[in-house]
Design a protein that fits this description.
alpha/beta, Rossmann fold, 7-stranded parallel beta sheet
Length: 323
């Protein structure tokens, strides 16, 4: 009898991957194991994946660079949740004969979390929750969104979905990206402005930009310096889009009112990372896409991708590599 194909699901932090998808559809063709702890060391990762022909990566939690792919000779199919993963070297995968496939997903999860963070930081909900549990009562002074200006750094699918919600709160909306067409912005319900104007005008700056080598640090010291002391920064896109050192300096100096972050330069955030103790912050552990509904889509498509590969086909391929 043919041995079952070994499948390893990485970074199942909550221990829900196997309950979130229809893995039974693979029958006895596969042996599936989910790992809940992150594996940062390359040697440890290679050891954990020895003999695995199929690996499932949860977004960009684990990097698959050329060195790691070169050291995984058994790997033949790498499935990533979502249809893009900056942590996978697609050229190295192709060179090693590894097919890379993606999944669909629900589009609104990050928008909803962004608004949760905006409300949390402008009304200091986590701080007041902690205070009342400690026996206190009313320590902070919040701000209102009605009449305020939302500045969107990036007006793609997620940025555009932010606009009608901002309007419902009574906010004005301005937007900037490197190649933003004013007519396109107007169609989405936002006014296109220059980058420096956005940071000067916005009461809340929300980052929704695609990460690339050119966009790293798109929010840097100059942009933070342009913000008013009463303004807030929110980042639910990618950590490296914001210069962390400059943000820490601005927070400690009181140059901005606060920041709400769901993404970081390195994840998981190290226990001693200075962001953990930074003043006037609301921090969440990259929860933007972490919902029951979205995981159900992710893992249904993961199973479909694996089943197709077993049958000699590729579903949602990110590289043109055949089995």
């Amino acid at each position: 009898m043919t041995a079952a194909v070994r499948v390893v699901v990485l970074d199942d932090y909550q221990g829900v991957a196997l309950a979130s998808g229809p893995w039974e559809r693979l029958g006895d063709r596969c042996s599936v194991r989910a790992l809940s702890e992150p594996i940062a060391d390359t040697g440890a990762l290679v050891a954990a994946l020895a003999g695995a022909e199929v690996v499932v990566a949860m977004r960009e939690r684990t990097s698959f660079d050329a060195e790691r792919l070169d050291r995984l000779p058994d790997l033949r199919l790498l499935v990533t949740t979502g249809m893009a993963n900056a942590a996978i070297d697609l050229d190295a995968a192709a060179r090693n004969g590894v097919a890379v496939c993606g999944t669909g997903g629900r589009p609104r999860h990050t928008v909803e979390l962004t608004w949760a963070l905006i409300l949390a930081v402008v009304r200091w909900i986590p701080q007041e929750d902690a205070g009342i549990r400690a026996g206190g009562w009313q320590h902070t002074l919040g701000a209102e969104l009605d009449g305020a200006t939302l500045g969107l750094v990036g007006l793609g699918r997620i940025g555009s979905a932010m606009v009608p919600i901002a309007r419902a709160f009574g906010m004005d909306v301005v937007a900037w990206s490197a190649n933003l067409d004013p007519a396109r912005a107007a169609q989405a319900g936002a006014a296109a402005v220059a980058k420096d104007e956005l940071f000067r005008r916005a009461d809340v700056v929300s980052v929704h930009y695609k990460l690339s080598p050119r966009s790293e640090g798109v929010v840097g010291a100059a942009e933070l310096a342009a913000m008013r002391p009463s303004a807030y920064l929110v980042n639910t896109s990618r950590g490296p889009l914001v210069d962390t050192a400059a943000l820490l300096a601005a927070l400690h100096a009181g140059a901005i009112a606060g920041a709400a972050l769901d993404v970081y330069d390195r994840e998981p955030l190290a226990p001693g990372d200075p962001l953990r103790s930074a003043p006037r912050t609301v921090l969440t552990p990259h929860l933007g896409y972490v919902t029951r509904e979205n995981y159900a889509v992710f893992f249904a498509d993961v199973v479909e991708d694996i089943a197709a590969w077993l049958d000699g086909r590729l579903e949602r391929p990110l590289t043109p590599v055949s089995r």
